[in-house]
User: Which sequence fits this backbone?
């Protein structure tokens, strides 16, 4: 679920389950995610000096800095370090380094997904027990399973990070390989354990939440790890990311408080196409590196002009389809509310993203994605009624 349920920053639904630090490698492309893969990306762009024919990660030659661009001395941000985003201060405290690897900036989307699922169930009540269940589900989805996903993603990116960003915790030696492996297992087992606890707490005859957690964890693994490495394919990888941030946490929240039905599964998977569109936003800043290393992101495969329209079409058509579903289900007020939230997104697409998806990607996400997030809640409330 986190893993799956793995990923917007608090104000941006930029799916970042790709890791906030995206790296260009033929083998690995860096969350999760409900980033977002959020995510947070640094505002600097590095140029890899490579030949297109030499696509093996070990052969890539890059003019990599020896330290984080803004993290040397007093210039680094301790806040960025704790959130797991660029511009982080160098840190020697092992627990802060462990937290950095989990990338807390990618947790909010999963938390929001649980909220939407609980709302859609129609059975959540503002009492101590239900609030406690929801909080445990959020911890499972965010810190545990998304943390597992992000730590594992950094582990499988360690070789290319040693070339592009040698100051990252793993390639810099700030944390040992054994400690990283231990963290991956502890977070995974903690997430699965909480999933089993929630099934018992909810009185499930079948361990539905546990099954979702296992499935999400598996998707997270094949997203980052060989031999499949879904993130190498623009379509499959981005959809897997969108589903991890939208569908899985929603399913967990709804299964916890109600019944997860086939129509809800289909509807949320449809909504994950919008998540695919959001994930594409993060591909534009890495076009040169992706092209040089043979990674088939959509901007590389189709070109910038076509890819930016694919991106906004995936986001807008998906939401319009969901609004049509709500209208057909005799819920006109919720359909109109969702349409009202789509309009500002379209405005900001023309105002920023379609003008220059590289220059304005962060400004677009900060402006438009909050409306998409609210639209998810409107849809969930419509379903509950």
Assistant:
């Amino acid at each position: 679920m986190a893993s799956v349920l793995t990923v917007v920053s608090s104000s941006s639904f930029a799916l970042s389950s790709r890791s906030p630090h995206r790296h260009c490698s033929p083998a690995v492309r860096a969350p999760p995610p409900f980033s977002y893969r959020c995510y947070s990306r640094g505002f600097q762009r590095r140029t890899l000096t490579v030949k297109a024919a030499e696509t093996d990660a070990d052969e890539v030659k890059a003019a990599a800095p020896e330290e984080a661009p803004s993290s040397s001395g007093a210039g680094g941000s301790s806040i960025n370090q704790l959130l797991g985003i660029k511009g982080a201060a160098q840190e020697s405290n092992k627990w802060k380094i462990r937290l950095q690897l989990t990338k807390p900036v990618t947790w909010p989307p999963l938390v929001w997904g649980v909220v939407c699922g609980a709302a859609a169930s129609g059975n959540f009540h503002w009492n101590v027990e239900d609030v406690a269940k929801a909080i445990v589900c959020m911890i499972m989805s965010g810190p545990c399973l998304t943390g597992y996903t992000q730590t594992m993603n950094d582990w499988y990116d360690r070789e290319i990070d040693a070339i592009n960003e040698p100051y990252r915790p793993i390639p810099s030696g700030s944390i040992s390989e054994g400690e990283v492996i231990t963290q991956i297992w502890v977070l995974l087992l903690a997430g699965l354990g909480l999933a089993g606890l929630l099934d018992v707490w909810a009185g499930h005859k079948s361990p539905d939440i546990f099954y979702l957690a296992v499935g999400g964890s598996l998707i997270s693994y094949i997203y980052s790890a060989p031999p499949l490495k879904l993130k190498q394919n623009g379509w499959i990888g981005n959809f897997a990311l969108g589903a991890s941030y939208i569908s899985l946490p929603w399913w967990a929240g709804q299964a916890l408080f109600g019944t997860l039905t086939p129509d809800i599964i289909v509807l949320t998977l449809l909504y994950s196409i919008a998540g695919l569109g959001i994930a594409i936003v993060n591909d534009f800043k890495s076009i040169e590196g992706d092209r040089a290393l043979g990674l088939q992101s959509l901007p590389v495969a189709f070109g910038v002009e076509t890819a930016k329209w694919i991106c906004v079409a995936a986001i807008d058509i998906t939401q319009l389809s969901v609004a049509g579903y709500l209208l057909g289900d005799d819920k006109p007020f919720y359909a109109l509310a969702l349409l009202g939230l789509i309009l500002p997104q379209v405005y900001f697409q023309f105002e920023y993203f379609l003008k220059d998806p590289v220059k304005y990607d962060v400004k677009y996400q900060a402006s438009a994605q909050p409306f998409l997030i609210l639209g998810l809640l409107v849809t969930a409330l419509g379903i509950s009624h």
